[in-house]
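Please describe our next protein:
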Amino acid sequence: MTDTLSKLGKVALFLGQVLRASAPALLRPRLIAQQVYNCGARSLVIIMLCGLFVGMVLGLQGYDLLARFGSESALGVAATLGLLKELGPVVTALLFAGRAGTSLTSEIGLMRATDQLTAMQMMAVDPLRRVIAPRFIGGIIAMPLLAAVFNVIGIFGAQLVGVTLMGVDQGTFWSQMQGAVGLRDVSEGIVKSIAFGVICSLLAVYEGYHTEPTAAGVGLATTRTVVASSVMTLIVDYMLTAAFLKG
């Protein structure tokens, strides 16, 4: 328990350092755009593929459940709310941690192991401003964009199964969805995706920056990134869901 609290304190202090370095990093939009590309564009294939099949499975399971109550026409509402409020942000965060998070950790960890970060400090270049902050900001920007793509592809997958295979009326599918889904539902998904982006990006750059400068150390840091990001994503998801329900 003491080690966990100590680790949380170190991560919180590191977050403060990164936030202070983020303001100067914003003056270098090219670096941030490059990291948005690395974290976001290079993750599009797996996000779109998983979003399609998650939406298709949601269409199958949602239709089976709603058919038991004679409410098959509400499939569009059920699938869209499930994706926007829960599955989209959470699954995207888990995929982000497994693909982009590990990439960030291993890249920064390799820079630590080869003394590149130390060389920057010797040349009076702050690694937090030049290396850490752009990757942190890029991850935060990329996460909501990836979640939005996941949701769009997922809704298409649910519509593909529900309308094409299960015979749900296409007009009913879209009209009920548009009538039932409101701005609050969309904003909940956006808030969650931004929060998960902060968590996954912070843990990735923290583990990479503080890794042991060995091959084994980089491997352990990468593993810790995936585990910690996944666990914290689920914990924060519960807390945010409870907050929105009470609000």
Summary: The chain has a mean pLDDT of 91.
